[in-house]
Design goal:
This protein is α/β, with parallel strands linked by helices. It has two domains: about 40-135 and about 260-310, Periplasmic binding protein-like II (D-Maltodextrin-Binding Protein, domain 2, 3-Layer(aba) Sandwich), CATH 3.40.190; about 140-260 and about 320-350, 3-Layer(aba) Sandwich (D-Maltodextrin-Binding Protein, domain 2). It contains 16 helices and 13 strands. The longest helix is centred in the N-terminal third of the chain and has 26 residues, at about 1-25.
Length: about 350
């Protein structure tokens, strides 16, 4: 009888061991997939793209395009989740634990902040073509049809009675581009007299009616809520507003603007944890394909591939006077001088 009890106990132990192994294997299913380890062996891959405000429509279309491409190339299903907000806020969310596989943010400084937090490897800006900027944009004005305030250039934004809508540079990458474009205009007017430029920028921000946290929020304030006389906008946002609200708005191209270069990067720490590196790298690389470049153009972004950009010369003003971030010493220097806590923007806005 004692021997039978021991055999029964042994059998129970074996069953419990098998169950435990099955549970542990099941817990790892999201990491390795049912068909093996690594994203190359999965039947389905999931990616999270943390992006900035105005890219919603573009990436909704691109994700469908890429999923068809990836299925054909690898045999895998792929699902991409989008997250959008002010670029600076989005970068902070990744640093604080938002497990993005890729980031597609409004400016290189926001990606560098994630790098400095140890999540992206150094040298990311050279990983893809055109300094990892697959498309560009610039800054324009969106005004109501008829342009009652006769807004033609940056100097018109400081006139009495002109209500300006622009997002906050502390949270929005687009807002940083807006600020620098205005600064570059005034520096050209006054011969680089910083005191005069500061006074100009102070007057400009005194005319800002609403300082939204992101570019899409600013667009909604102007377009949907009807506030303000002029929106300082991404070019693509202005075109989208005109498409959605025909005959209600006009685009004004200022005499000086800036070449805005949104940056993309793989979040190395996260893709290694998720086992999604192969798909994540392909997701960003495919942005440079002719198909994706034309899709960017359809969504009013300027393709980085020059031949395709030239195809769109009837859509974009390719003769605009554009300064670049290099004119400000690069993003690290520009952010330090203008946008860090206590820097020029804070000094101007808090006076």
């Amino acid at each position: 009888m004692r021997q039978k009890k021991m055999n029964l106990c042994s059998r129970i132990l074996v069953v419990l061991t098998v169950v435990s192994m099955t549970v542990l294997t099941g817990c790892g299913g999201n990491e390795t997939g049912a068909s093996g380890s690594g994203d190359g062996n999965r039947e389905k891959v999931e990616l999270l793209n943390v992006s900035y405000d105005p890219t919603r429509e573009f990436y909704a279309a691109y994700n469908q395009m890429f999923s068809e491409y990836w299925k054909e190339q690898s045999g895998q299903e792929i699902s991409v989740t989008q997250s959008h907000g002010g670029s600076g806020s989005q970068a902070r969310s990744v640093i604080e634990g938002n497990e993005a596989d890729v980031v597609t943010l409004a400016l290189a400084h926001d990606v560098t902040a994630i790098e400095e937090a140890g999540l992206i490897e150094s040298g990311w800006i050279g990983e893809f073509d055109s300094n990892s900027a697959p498309y560009t944009s610039t800054i324009v004005f969106l005004v109501h049809k008829g342009n009652e305030k006769n807004i033609q250039d940056w100097n018109d934004l400081i006139k009495d009675g002109v209500e300006v809508i622009t997002p906050n540079p502390k949270t929005s990458g687009g807002a940083c581009w807006n600020f620098l474009a205005a600064w570059a205009y005034q520096q050209e007017q006054d011969g680089n007299d910083e005191d005069v430029t500061r006074e100009f920028m102070k007057k400009l921000y005194q005319n800002v009616l609403v300082l939204d946290s992101g570019a899409r929020g600013a667009t909604n304030t102007f377009v949907e809520n009807g506030q303000g006389d002029v929106l300082i906008a991404w070019e693509n946002e202005a075109y989208l507003a005109m498409k959605e609200y025909p005959d209600q708005y006009e685009i004004i191209t200022p005499s000086v603007s800036i070449l805005a270069q949104p940056s993309v990067a793989v979040v190395d720490s996260n893709v290694d944890d998720h086992g999604t590196r192969e798909a994540a790298e392909a997701y960003l690389e495919y942005l440079y394909s002719d198909e994706a470049q034309r899709l960017a153009g359809e969504n009013y972004y300027r393709p980085s591939k020059e031949t395709i950009l030239q195809e769109l010369s009837g859509q974009f003003d390719l003769d605009m006077n554009l300064v670049t971030i290099d004119d400000f010493g690069g993003w690290d220097e520009a952010y330090r001088v203008y946008f860090e806590d206590g820097a020029i923007f804070d000094q101007i806005y808090e006076e």
